[in-house]
Amino acid sequence: MSGLGRRKLAMIGLDAADLEFIQEHLFALPNLARLLSGGTVRRLDSTAGLLAGSVWPTFYTGTLPGEHGIYHHLQWDAAAMGLRRVSADWLHREPFWYELERRGLLVIAVDVPMTFPSRLTRGVEVINWGSHDTLSAFQTQPAELRGEILRRFGRHPMGCEIPVNKSAGELERIRANLVEGARRKGELSRWLAETRPWDFFLTVFGECHRGGHILWAEKEDEGEPGAAGALRDVYRAVDEAIGVLLASPALAEARVAVFALHGMGPNRSQEHFMPRILDQINARFGSSAVAEEKEAPPKGQRSVMRLLREKVPAAWQNAVAKAVPVSVRDFVVSRSVTSGHEWKETPGFALLADLHGYVRLNLAGRERLGSLSRASDEERQYREWIEQTLLSFRIAGSGERLVREVVWTRDVFPGERSEYLPDAIVKWSGAGPVSRIESEILGRIEAQRGTGRSGNHRADGFFLAGDGEASARPPSHISGFAGWALDALGVSPAGDASTRGAGAKAPTF
Which of 74, 80, 183, 283 has the fewest Cβ atoms nearer than 10 Å? Predict the structure, then answer.
């Protein structure tokens, strides 16, 4: 049991759950409806407005991306000139519950996305049993807990996401697996809460995240694959699991908070254009005859891997990706970004992204094969060229702007690890995904979205608490959760060094 007289805090994370979707479907979500009607709800600013994949490291470290350096599960490694999965030997950052354990509190943390193999010594941590975003394989602290979870609950049926278009049958399997996965997560969470002692309990449901990407629909139509009814089934299953957990006697005396770090909505990403746009930008950089050349195809990246990813039928890609190890999938993705480049002739390139476009400068002295002189006139001219050309694109047929803004990351996320981030973030105008764009500078480009994602991230999250004490002084930004949790548990006096940066002022977009 937890220490006599200690405060207890239980946090339930709903990964990428969307507050507007919840409010529209409260009739099917009785537990969330009860919390919303009787508690405190607050919208949260987040780093997802620029770096969607940075939210969980920002949450658990209490710092911004320039400090923790993590924005995606696959990131650019300048020494290797390729993408690699973020790992504990490369970009490790410690979650705030480690500090709780050092203060003598008992901790249980379940399926917090983008965390590393546990370094707790007394507490309980379940890593990647049922998370949407994963950095490593399923493992637990203590190690023997892994086998017991598999015996009692089996493997979580969500599995990994294969970013290709899905058939109606595949969508139905995804829906059913997410519903079943939420049920098992609720049972696992309650079992841990009732059988292990704790002062701080944190569990995260990843099913809303996966469902939001794959099953999002802009209109209610029960008969269509990916319709709102399918996603509502997933949210209903998560709501039922929340009810199972909240009904546990183990939570009866705990302060309880439900939260999401970002939301979900229709997919407005135009990221599928980025590799071709960068081909054009690089081919024309420094040219004195852009107008005469713009109709000719640029030399671009000569990548067999990219061609295969674009041309091989989605069903084949899906089948192959499920059959091979994670390391092989990572290799294929990395090669699609890197192969075919002549690095001496490549001042910048598109990085793997999901919502916004990401650009990396090939800087000499930072990248192993860098060609662009840092802080030179050439770098300044290339940055200006990137902005000029990206902002020149219009959507064919409508004339609407493709790009709303180009943000230089170090301007908004400075810090000791800022150079692990993309150098530029391309924010789209908000139009629905299109296949043809035009520029008076670079001509016409055609590309098709092929990720199978009908939904994508929204920037704001939410905080929901059912009692006055838990909701006192709730965070306004996701970077404030670490300090808030320590304060809620009574172990973090104001100004304590352990929460330094937890309430850091963060930019909103």
Answer: 80
Q: How many CB atoms lie within 10 A of CB 370?
A: 19
The answer to whether residue 289 scores a pLDDT higher than 70 is no
185 close to 12: Cβ distance less than 8 angstroms: no
Kindly give, in sequence order, each residue whose CB lies less than 8 Å from that of residue 263, ignoring residues fewer than 6 positions away.
16, 17, 18, 19, 20, 21, 457, 458, 459, 460, 461, 462
In this structure, the dihedral spanned by the alpha carbons of residues 219, 224, 228 and 229, taken in order and rounded to 10 degrees, is 140
**Eight-class DSSP state of 172:** H
Give Cβ neighbours of residue 82 (< 8 Å, ≥ 6 apart). Answer: 76, 334, 335, 337, 338
Question: Kind and range of the H or E element at 164?
Answer: none
Least confident of 214-218, 240-244, 347-351, 460-464: 214-218
What is the reported pTM? Answer: 0.89
CA distance linking residue 421 with residue 65, whole number of Å: 8
Backbone angles phi, psi at 257, to 5 degrees: -135, 135
Q: Write the DSSP string, 246-272.
A: HTSGGGTTSEEEEEESSEEEE----GG
Per-residue tokens: 272: 């599928």
- The SS3 of residue 410 is helix
SS3 state of residue 345: helix
464 beta partners: 41, 258
Half-sphere exposure of 256 (CA within 13 A, CB side): 23
Q: What is d(CA 293, CA 291) in angstroms, rounded to the nearest whole number?
A: 6
DSSP per residue over 422-451, as a string? -SEEEEE-SPPP-SEEEETTTEEEE----S
Q: With cut-offs at 50, 70 and 90, classify the pLDDT of residue 10.
A: very high
CB-CB contact of 193 with 251 (8 Å): yes
Distance of CA 186 to the CA centre of its chain: 22
Name the residue among 465, 466, 366 with its Cα closest to residue 80: 366
DSSP 352: P
Burial of 49 (0-12, 13-18, 19+ CB in 10 A): buried
In angstroms, the CA 423 to CA 181 distance is: 37
Give the burial class of 392: count Cβ atoms within 10 A of its Cβ; 0-12 exposed, 13-18 middle, 19 or more buried. middle
pLDDT for 99-124, tens place per residue?
Answer: 999 999 999 999 999 999 999 999 99
CA distance 377 to 454: 41
460/13 Cα distance (integer angstroms): 14
Structural contact between residues 422 and 359, judged by C-beta atoms closer than 8 angstroms: yes
And the tokens for 73?
Answer: 């599960």
Q: Which two tokens stand for residue 108?
A: 């249980």
Please, which residues have CB within 8 angstroms of residue 324's CB and are 6 or more apart in sequence? none
Contact assessment for residue 255 and residue 419, using Cβ atoms and an 8 Å cutoff: no
